[in-house]
TrEMBL record:
Chain segments annotated as transmembrane: none
Lineage per the UniProt record: Archaea, Methanobacteriati, Methanobacteriota, Stenosarchaea group, Halobacteria
Assigned protein family: Belongs to the ABC transporter superfamily.
SUPFAM superfamilies the UniProt entry points to: P-loop containing nucleoside triphosphate hydrolases
Biological process terms in GO annotation: L-amino acid transport
UniProt-recorded name of the protein: Branched-chain amino acid ABC transporter ATP-binding protein
Domain of life: Archaea
UniProt key word Transport: yes
SMART domains registered for this protein in UniProt: AAA
Keywords assigned: Amino-acid transport, ATP-binding, Nucleotide-binding, Transport
Gene Ontology terms, MF aspect: ATP binding; ATP hydrolysis activity; branched-chain amino acid transmembrane transporter activity
Length: 241
């Protein structure tokens, strides 16, 4: 067995005196897609922020590629090879598609040659047509693809996506899902936070369910998909046959 690419141990984290994560444990194997699901406000985004370093953990450890990155700033974490596609996309509305992607190229790994902005944009059909369009003029799906492109241009080993399908029409959800699978096939390891349980289970190799700042259930995606009682208890959903 090789060590996981990302390993989170007993992570306690929050905002000021509010403790949100109560000791989170999770592993992401190199080459896999892991999803983190759970109801609103249980700490999914806080988990990603604590891994990235934009929220400072109170205790616990985050190990990435064999190195302890718990105390690193987001800039240093990005240089180590982790990129986050944030909740609500955070595309710069006044900048063009190209300029948005250029910003992503500033950060990230320094020890390898990063792809060019054009190479990345050309991988996204629905962005290539809009090089010079401003972020504000893109559809929700295009903005999501742009947010992914901006993260990819840093050539991350681990891509973390926070609810990438939120608010998108079903056909666009499918496009995002296909993109995630395609990136994973190309060798990018993925940690995906998803509200859409069906997408989360379809995309994932392994699933963690978070409740009140703790992992309450975990398992291979096909097993979790079969666990009706677990899905109902922690997520309040039942999957249609
Ligand atoms: N910047 C912040 N300052 C203070 N409290 C925050 C902050 N961000 C989140 N919280 C609180 O931390 C808790 C966990 O929030 P978090 O955003 O991690 O949940 P989540 O699982 O991502 O939820 P959602 O599904 O709504 O995105 C919530 O109670 C939230 O109100
Ligand atoms: Mg969130």
């Amino acid at each position: 067995m090789t060590d996981p690419l990302l390993s989170v141990r007993d992570l306690v984290s929050g905002y000021g005196s509010t403790r949100v994560l109560q000791g989170v444990n999770l592993d992401v194997d190199k080459g896999s897609v892991v999803t983190l699901i759970g109801r609103n406000g249980v700490g999914k985004t806080t988990t990603l922020r604590s891994i990235l370093g934009s929220v400072k953990p109170t205790s616990g450890t985050v190990t990435f590629d064999g190195n302890d990155i718990t105390e690193l700033s987001p800039e240093k974490t990005a240089q180590a090879g982790i990129a986050l596609v944030p909740e609500e996309r955070r595309v710069f509305p006044g900048l063009t598609v190209r300029e948005n992607v250029e910003i992503g190229r500033i950060g990230g790994r320094r020890d390898i040659e990063k792809p060019s902005v054009d190479e990345i944009i050309d991988e996204f059909e629905n962005l290539a047509r809009h090089h010079e369009s401003r972020g504000a003029n893109l559809s929700g799906g295009e903005q999501q693809m742009l947010a992914i492109a901006r993260a990819l241009v840093s050539a991350p080993d681990l891509l973390m996506l926070d609810e990438p399908t939120e608010g998108l029409a079903p056909s666009i959800v499918k496009q995002v899902q296909r993109k995630i699978t395609e990136l994973n096939d190309e060798g990018v390891t993925i940690l995906l936070v998803e509200q859409n349980v069906q997408v989360a289970l379809d995309a994932a190799d392994y699933v963690y369910i978070l409740d009140k700042g703790q992992v309450v259930h975990e398992g291979p995606a096909d097993e979790v998909a079969e666990s009706e009682e677990v899905l109902d208890r922690y997520l309040g959903v039942s999957l249609a046959e």
